[in-house]
Specification:
- The protein has one domain: Alpha-Beta Barrel (TIM Barrel), CATH 3.20.20.
- The protein is 38% helix and 15% strand.
- It has helices at 7-12, 14-20, 25-34, 63-66, 85-100, 122-135, 162-175, 193-209, 222-225, 231-240, 265-283, 317-325, and strands at residues 49-53, 72-78, 104-110, 141-143, 180-182, 185-187, 216-220, 243-249, 254-255, 287-293, 304-305.
- The strands form two sheets. The protein has a nine-stranded parallel sheet with strand order 5-4-3-2-1-10-8-7-6. Strands 9-11 form a two-stranded antiparallel ribbon.
- Strand 1 (49-53), helix 4 (63-66) and strand 2 form a beta-alpha-beta unit.
- The chain is globular and about 55 Å long.
Length: 338
């Protein structure tokens, strides 16, 4: 399957590469336990929904996806998608496919693909997202900005401040008063100090704006679970308050030099991380949704790869883990080693 490039996803995780390269997966996990931060203990019954986050409509046509019987899916759209033919075509294809499968759709807005280093004014943002909401009336769940705390990548993309994100959130609520608007969507990072400050500043701005404090927030906990740790997820979730949806989570198959996939080692590692992630969510009642990112994997030359299937839509070890947790009927396929 030929996938249109999404270079921003690899770059959005570029900070993780430097942060994760200093220690191996298991050494970091042991260090976390030495600090008294123990791993999750699963509860008897799941209290959360599980779905897939991906930007390509082909996922919905895969028999492997069909047998998971998911009810939720997440898509990342440029805030100005309706204004650009290519962005609009991809969003339309994905949303139509999700509607046909009766999926509950969560759309997270993101920077423009055409002017990624220029943040929109609140007025422009409101104008563009109103057009998107009108164009896709069956989407009823939104996020103001995907991974809003990732920071800036010079000459490539810009991310909003916590105060700007609060104003985007307010504008999105006003644009769709009957929608569920999730609050912050943040990346945990190895050092969660800046993330916690970002959350605090967002809440202060919400207070200054006298708008409704969000009751649901999004978290991408790659840094935590790929170390087989849970303390970052717990501390960031506590700071966010309310329900937490893991709007991107999953096992990294390959990411630069820190997470290689030599002889299938990355495939086995990612599967272990996915199993750990399910146990973490089951142990933390605040977590109500998991969106596993993503569906279709890359090739050996891919910088970032967290796919549940390989580039030819064959199931990987990680897929088998997800399938079993979702009680699929045919989860014992021989996993791909690509």
């Amino acid at each position: 399957m030929t996938r249109p490039p999404r270079p921003s996803r690899a770059l959005a995780l570029a900070g993780l590469l430097a942060l994760l390269a200093a220690c191996t997966l298991f050494a970091a996990g042991a260090a976390g336990q030495a600090r008294g931060r123990t791993g999750p203990v699963a509860r008897a019954a799941n209290h959360f929904l599980t779905g897939i986050g991906d930007e390509y409509a082909q996922m919905f046509g895969s028999p492997l996806w069909t047998q998971l019987h998911t009810k939720i899916a997440r898509y990342i759209a440029p805030y100005d998608a309706v204004a650009h033919r290519d962005s609009l075509a991809r969003a339309t294809a994905w949303i139509q496919a999700a509607e046909e499968q009766h999926e509950q759709m969560l759309v997270a807005f993101y920077h423009s693909e055409h002017t990624p280093t220029v943040l929109p004014s609140v007025a422009l943002y409101a104008h563009d997202v109103q057009k998107f909401i009108k164009r896709f009336p069956h989407v009823r769940q939104y996020q103001a900005w995907d991974e809003s705390n990732r920071g800036n990548i010079p000459h490539y993309l810009s991310s909003p401040s916590a105060s700007a994100t609060a104003r985007y959130y307010q504008a999105l609520r006003r644009a769709c008063t009957t929608c569920t608007v999730i609050g912050l969507d943040v990346l945990d990072q190895a050092n969660i100090g800046p993330t916690l400050e970002y959350i605090a500043e967002f809440k202060r701005e919400i207070g200054r704006l006298r708008t409704v404090m969000p009751s649901i927030s999004g978290l991408h906990d790659y840094s935590d679970v790929n170390r087989l740790e849970s303390w970052r997820t717990r501390e960031v979730s506590h700071a966010l308050g309310g329900q937490v949806w893991l709007t991107e989570t999953g096992g990294i198959v390959q990411f630069g030099g820190a997470f290689p996939n030599h002889n299938g080692s990355g495939l086995a590692r990612a599967a272990k991380v996915l199993n750990y992630t399910f146990n973490l969510a089951a142990s933390q009642g605040q977590i109500r949704r998991l969106y596993i990112y993503n569906w279709t994997g890359g090739v050996n030359s891919s910088r970032f790869d967290a796919g549940l299937t390989d580039a030819r839509d064959r199931p990987r070890m990680g897929y088998v883990i997800v399938c079993r947790h979702l009680h699929g009927s045919k989860c014992n396929q021989r996993p791909s080693n690509h």
